[in-house]
Design brief:
Layout (H helix, E strand, L loop, with lengths): L10 E5 L7 E5 L13 E6 L6 H15 L10 H11 L5 H19 L9 H10 L4 H20 L30 H8 L4 H13 L3 H4 L7 E2 L4 E4 L2 E3 L2 E3 L8 E4 L2 H13 L2 H4 L6 E2 L4 E2 L2 H15 L7 H14 L4 H8 L17 H14 L7
Antiparallel strand pairs: 1-2, 2-3, 4-5, 5-8, 6-7, 9-10
Helix pairs in contact: 1-2, 2-3, 3-5, 7-9, 7-12, 7-14, 13-14
Length: 379
Amino acid sequence: MFKRARHQFGWLERKKRRRGPEVWVWRYHEDAPSKKGSKPAVLVGDVKQYPTKADAWKAAECIRMAVSDPVTADLVKFGALVDRYIREALPERKGTALRYRSWLVNHIKPRWQDVTLPKVKPLLVETWIKDLQLAPKSKGHVRSMMHILFEWAMRWELMECNRNPMSLLKIKGLTKRAKEPRALSVEELQRLWKHLDNHVRTMSVVDVCLGLRASELFGLRWEDINWKELRVKIQRSWVYGRIEEVKTEGSEKWLPLDSGLVEVLRRHRKKMEPELIATGWIFVNPSTGKPWWPHKLLRFHLIPAAEKAGIGRIGWHTFRHTYSTLLHAYGTDMKVQQELLRHSDIRTTMNIYTHTVSPALREANSKVVRMVLPTEKTA
């Protein structure tokens, strides 16, 4: 009466190709007969990736999980769960996906890949995370990644849908930073700008006057600016050479433009070649016609200039922290600060897609801009 479910172990075959190295192919049985009696096959990888059959079996396990119905948790290795997550569930945002992959490949998989799901116990994971030679915040990322993996294990029915075992972890201090975020004083900003080329100085001026993330700064286009109403819409990011959405839903927002900052942008536009203006990007690399890569500018311009100015090592995010610090120094209302910085944790208390800029936001922003803006002699 009842059809007995089975776990699909299948078998591996090593096949030759006309070009390139031999490949491993995993074959399995299916209920519906395939044409000419052949069995379904899935490419696992070539022999360069997986030199031995044992390596190929490990790589094929995440494929077997997707085919088998149901899968017994005792048969599932944690490494196979990681592989399937990387294969099917990594976030679409490239920067986020790269960070997730780093935690998985460099920390989680080496420790737990050969352990079956039921044996990945909360206390063992807790002790392991505490012993990792990482900063507290990085340990927090690893813990969150473990929690995400178990959520997907339940979603894929690899284990019973119950309380996530990683929610039992008790590790203190994971939100603490190893180093306090760096913020520059107005005097340090002025010293820095003396050692920067015009185009990089303009980028950093706009960044510190709006408190943008680097990806948002380089994602700016001329069409985002409303010159008449003195405002700019933050609506895209430039991440690893491609256009993506902003980090969070609450980050897409209109921000005020002080008249002094508008003049900086107008001067920058006048200095641009017509073909570069035609690309639409505000900060465009003449060699590619696309936005600059923040890391290259950081390495070859910002860091050397900061060292010459005697202010130590900085990054693009330093300007966002500087903006936040200066807002606070002026006694700006906390809610106004959060709206200007577009933090996602206040999305329920504000209208994310508002098309107006309140007087309080404009006044707080202008105070910072007028304090830090370079004079015409240094611009």
